[in-house]
Structures are given as structure tokens and as C-alpha cells.
Amino acid sequence: MGSDEAVSGKRKEPMRKCIGCGEMKGKKTLIRVLRTPEGDFVLDATGRKNGRGAYLCRESGCLEKAIRQKGLERSFQAAIPCEVYDSLRKELAELDAE
How far is Cα 38 from Cα 74, in angstroms, rounded to an integer? Predict the structure, then answer.
């Protein structure tokens, strides 16, 4: 027999863990922080760009917590320059304004 997903026609939303607060949330409610193949770090609001990603809540508090706890550095297994954090703060503020 088919699974419940096939019967109801609905797909389950994938869950991801916020690297700031550590809570599991739906992928669509989080923002993906992406390291591009060139080594740049950007916010990927669509969640579809190529590269290694980590997820954050859309709250600046989670970004600050991830910075304090070095969550991004653990996720990407690399040192993150201060300029990247400043850029992420600015991009997150722009997304909040939308």
C-alpha cells in the first residue's frame, strides 16, 4: 500500500535545524546561509542556489547567537571573516524590511 503522503496528496515539509537557536523548523521558515563554490558567503532566501548551506531563523538574535557560539564555523568547517558576519547582518536586516 502507499504511504499517507501518496493518499493525501500533500508532501511533508523538510525540517532543518537553526544553527543559532538549535530548534528544528520547517525549511521554508528558515534562511539558508550559503558558501558558494568560490568561497563567498551569502544568504540564499530561495534555498536553491548551489553550494554548502546552513540554516538560520529569520531573527537577528539567532544570527548573533550563531556568531557567539561559532555555529557557522562549525557548519562550514572553516574560519569566517568578520566582514562576512557584517554582510550577513545587513542582508538579514534587508530581508526583515521586505
Answer: 19
